[in-house]
Amino acid sequence: MINNYLPFPRELPIIVIEDESSFYYPFMISPIFFKKKEDIDAITHSLKSDSIIFLAYSKDVNLNSIEDSNIERFGVIGSIMRKVDMPDGRVKILFQGLEKGEIIDSVRNSKTRKIKFIMANIDISPKEPYDKQRSEAINSVLNEKLSFYAKLNSSIPQDLLTTIYETNEPYRKAELVASVLKFNRTVAYKFYKNNNIEDKLLDIIEYIISEINTLKIQHEIRKKVQVKIDHANKEYFLREQLREIHKELGDDTQKEDDVLKMRQRLIEITPFITEDALKEITKQINRFAKITGENSDSAMLQSYLESVFEIPFDKESSKKLSIKNIQKELDKDHFSLEVAKDKIVEFFATKELAKKRAVENQKDSGMILCFFGPPGVGKTSLANSIANALDRPLVRIALGGLEDVNELRGHRRTYIGAMVGRIVQGLIEAKSMNPVVVLDEIDKIGRSYKGDPTAALLEILDPEQNKAYRDYYLNFSIDLSKVIFVATANDYGSIPAPLRDRMERIYIGSYMPSEKFEIAKKYLIPQELKKHSLSRSEFEINADALKMLIDEYTREAGVRNLRRQIASLMRKSAKMILLDDTLTKVKITPKNIEEFFKEKSFQYTKIEDSPRIGVVNGMVWTSVGGEILKIEIIKTKGNGAIKITGSLGDVMKESVQIAYSAVKILIDNHELEIDTSKIPLSEKEREKLSEGKKVELDASDVYKRYDLHIHFPEGAIKKDGPSAGIAIASVIASTLSDTSIDNQVAMTGEINLRGGVLPIGGLKEKLIGAFKAGVKKVIIPAKNFEHDLHDISDEVKDSLEIIGVKDVKEVLEHILLRDV
Fold it and tell me: Please, which of 207, 387, 402, 468 could form a disulfide with 394 given CB 3.0 to 4.6 Å?
């Protein structure tokens, strides 16, 4: 008894219990294990003195040091009945709790030198007085609730319950019940430190009632589950009996085996599918199980179920999204494209931040990127780098020429040869529910009587709708929200506006020749050497030859044809090495490169050697990058008619008419200088002049007495677009005013009837084309000059004098050479 250890308060060694699962009460005799040296020292000291010690509880289970703030105030005063040293270095004691105690001053280290432990002044926690009659009433309610709780929880020992029922002392009864309920450390200490016995007992009763309600719900759930299990076991037993009967009769049991596997697979994927999917699959399995093999629907149902179970409902990549990995992978796989790479990383940065901060409305939301630009610039390979960085499979779905909406949505099962749509087929190929899906050539989707595939893509690419995407063949919804969709296009303007609204667009522009050179050296040549089983010691192309290959044997915005030409060189080299045993290395130089190719494939249009009247350098965008387009014009005696040749589209023909009218206005307003002495005279005017009479001509007569023929070379190539407006106006003004045009200047810009210059697209490609053609000065619309030059490489900007203009008069001031 505690009376044997009077007086109190007194100084006692303290052992701090850090184990979250352990809580001790004064009436308990418990084995406790210790490993820490300070705990063992405290036990040793206690046994050498009077075998009494104080068990306290830590607030933090990961204690590095013992301080007052880390130790709870209330604990158990008790004695050590026995100590046993364990083989693993631990110490086991048999502890007998005697009384509830509390620390009444600060914790301090012991003063002994050989052993170290902590100690403090401990006092017996006082028991508050209580109303005996109220205590008996509460005791009665507690017994009633505990009895009901014990019926639901069979793990409580009956002898312990008997002891609790027979105990009338409220403090002891509260601690006995608390030990039965097995509170966690936090709850147990909350009850334990409360010295008001009525509050403590009422709190315990409230806790027991809550536990009773929980146990009732658990029992109901177990009962329902047991009924389902019994039903499933019965069904399984009957089916096994049926299989055995079929075996005895010599029937084929393959179908029963297939159905059994299907049901087992359905159980595995049930947590990952929707309720309507579970109902539909279960319904079709039951139908398949009932019909005979001779039924025409049997093969259709089997094909349907096999397709369903190929969908990887329970599989997805679990790698954490990291923009550092994405940045690293993009830099490793792609040279240049800094603007595009930055935009990709920025786009994924918002997703990573949302995941870290648990933003619910963005969690696992689908991502739709659209890379657009000329062929061969690396749109698909960027998607491949994203997939590698995220450790997700890549699926490519070609949409070019797609007209039938059922190819995307899936065919209804009533059709012969019905199958799942391309999107679901992509998930099957990827074997994952969150792959990177590349929708190639989204700008080339067709539309016919079979439906509009664009409408289906609106649902597929909308994060708000694709959480419940419905495939016609499956006839239930699947979740596409975790898929990263990457669309690619050559012409962004050809994508329907509702689709564009759902995508984050990223432009991938043309490469400079210097960029192509670095890409070939760092990526294409090493990759092709590996593909063609050649080593660097067997094949070499020097820098000058590589530049010649880029400039004269390829013509493109990207590097796809460059890769083909490099591969062609390597194939020819491999052939030479195999045929000539003495040849160990093939070296490509500017001198011998022509031996590998019959002729130069392409040559960029070059500017004129000197200024000329009626010839101007326009700048055009093509699918293979920018190019210089010369516009030629001649005038012949006539009455103001204009003839246009060169395979032009309607928009370009309109540009000619607009430019002609704009130049006429300049002439009428005397803003374009015209030498009237060169204007041809009519027959009456010549007669009048021969008679010595004065003949006065107006500047406007220049366009009334000449016919103009405007020609755009390379007539076999279709040309269209409004951006040649200022070039056409310049060449007309040059011809009518008999003024040469600066051959070192190229220009692009749309024009209106009042002579204003409007902005254009494709500026980057056009400037690169001008750079390649040897142009020194370019004229562009002022708005493009203000807003678009930041996307142009320094190499181009440093090599060209770029001038922004607002109207056609400014253009003529820069390009007409009146002194020549």
Answer: 387
